[in-house]
Design goal:
Aminopeptidase; alpha+beta; about 170 residues; about 35% helix
């Protein structure tokens, strides 16, 4: 393995990030959803109007990790849009995706530390995220950084709606 490089994504990275996000979501969660619901979600989240289009929004920042030019992971940071009480100026980690070969390799800590530092630099009072209720590994990871449970929010995958835990880190 060569060294992992980190950089801010640009709109030119849209298709590569979308392909990686689609793969990561399908590998991680695909077995838990109906195939048609999964396909609708993947098209909405990672199709041209999804992640690629979001990269043109100056309020959305994506830090990506690459190895040999291939996307290994990314974190998307944006204004908080979760339907839970949150202070003005709060930010949200919308996605933190790490492909299997890089899980446990120190990539996620670099990305989360970047997000926390970026939120603090922005003067954000808090950082929020939602996480799949059955992803104990992710919940434990976020807790190590001081995130605490702050409610629940709906997350739809096609026609299925899950009520995912929302976590909050006061900055």
């Amino acid at each position: 393995m060569t060294a992992i490089a980190y950089r801010r994504a640009t709109p030119a990275d849209g298709s590569a990030l979308a392909a990686m996000g689609r793969r990561c979501f399908a590998e991680t969660f695909g077995a838990h959803y109906d195939a048609a619901d999964l396909a609708r979600h993947l098209d909405k989240a990672f199709g041209p109007a999804g992640l690629p289009a979001e990269l043109a929004d100056p309020k959305v920042r994506v830090m990506m990790a690459e190895e040999d030019g291939a996307v290994a992971a990314y974190l998307k940071l944006a204004p908080c849009g979760l339907p839970v009480e949150h202070p003005a100026g709060a930010l949200e980690i919308k996605q933190l995706y790490v492909l299997q070969p890089w899980q446990g390799a120190g990539v996620a800590p670099v990305l989360i530390e970047w997000a926390i530092a970026a939120a603090r630099d922005d003067g954000a009072p808090a950082l929020f995220l939602s996480v799949w209720a059955h992803n104990a590994r992710a919940i434990a990871f976020y807790r190590r950084y001081g995130f605490k449970m702050a409610g629940h929010a709906p997350f739809s995958v096609g026609e299925r709606i899950d009520m995912d835990p929302v976590m909050r880190l006061d900055l």
